[in-house]
Design goal:
With 290 residues, the chain is mainly α. Helices cover 71% and strands 11% of the residues. It contains 8 helices and 3 strands. The protein has a 3-stranded mixed β-sheet with strand order 1-2-3, with helices on one face. The radius of gyration is 25 Å and the shape is elongated.
């Protein structure tokens, strides 16, 4: 229990650090982006807003999902994070579409980026902060193997490349090459949409109770069939409960076994599957005499 609590505190600290870091970046990016009319900087600011929202959602989700199971939620509150992620993914897609429309409108009206030395400063500061957050998140992910920290780590890594593209468009504007800003603005917006669609898909698959992959089903089947008393694996159903699954396992066993022996074998199978597979939260076994 103490190790679980320590792990949860580590995850909360990592996500909170992401919130504070992204909040700082949002403020300076918006100010400089508006002053300079940089579409790529504004797109990057929106990307940071989404990162901040994702960090906030992750923090809230962790606090809720870490609550112990109760009468109404016998398997805990693991799906909370996917519910919030689903909503965030929709917002990301809407924002990316809005940003692309805005960029196209500015291209038509001839709005150009106004170079400002502060743009270079913001880009450099952002890259340095994101490198620091990436290194920190990567270390914590290796310790916790938490999916939310992994997502935050990947976001920090991607932000390094996104902000580098903004820096390039800023430098290009010095030489009067303004179209680079528009190109990177659209690329960043499309990238936001791509990430939003990916999160949407992952969240959607969990929320509609998608079954286990064929690979996991084959692995479970193989392990269960190792027991001589098991004549056949009739059905394996995986019900997602957050990051893990509740496995409903229907098997056929020797009809000559008494209830006590049958129950003992069920217990052995259940303990083994939970011990050897981190993605399994619980196993419910139904036996058909054969």
């Amino acid at each position: 229990m103490q190790n679980i609590s320590k792990k949860q505190n580590m995850i909360k600290k990592t996500t909170l650090l992401g919130v504070l870091g992204n909040l700082f970046l949002v403020v300076i990016k918006l100010i400089v982006g508006i002053i300079s009319n940089s579409q790529s900087m504004l797109a990057d600011a929106l990307h940071s807003i989404e990162d901040m929202m994702s960090s906030v959602v992750s923090y809230i989700a962790i606090k809720i999902s870490s609550k112990p199971s109760d009468k109404e939620h016998p398997y805990g509150h693991g799906k909370v994070e996917y519910t919030f992620s689903f909503l965030i993914s929709i917002i990301m897609i809407i924002v990316s579409i809005t940003m692309i429309k805005s960029t196209i409108s500015n291209i038509i009206s001839g709005v150009r980026i106004t170079f400002n030395i502060w743009m270079v400063f913001v880009c450099v500061v952002t890259i340095l902060i994101k490198i620091g957050l990436y290194i920190y998140s990567n270390r914590k992910y290796k310790l916790t193997k938490n999916i939310l920290i992994r997502a935050a780590r990947d976001d920090h890594r991607n932000d390094i490349f996104v902000t580098t593209s903004v820096l390039i468009s800023t430098i290009a504007s010095i030489f009067g090459i303004y179209y680079v800003d528009y190109i990177f603005s659209i690329i960043i917006s499309l990238f936001i949409a791509f990430v939003g669609i990916r999160i949407f898909k992952i969240s959607y698959m969990v929320l509609i109770d998608t079954n286990l992959s064929d690979e996991k089903i084959e692995d479970i089947t193989s392990k269960v069939n190792e027991y001589d008393e098991v004549k056949k694996v009739n059905m394996i159903i995986g019900k997602p409960v957050g990051e893990k699954y509740v496995i409903i396992l229907k098997i056929s066993m020797n009809k000559n076994l008494n209830v006590s022996n049958s129950h003992d074998i069920e217990s052995v199978i259940k303990r083994r599957l939970i011990k050897e597979n981190e993605y399994i939260e619980d196993v419910i076994i139904h036996v058909n005499p054969c």
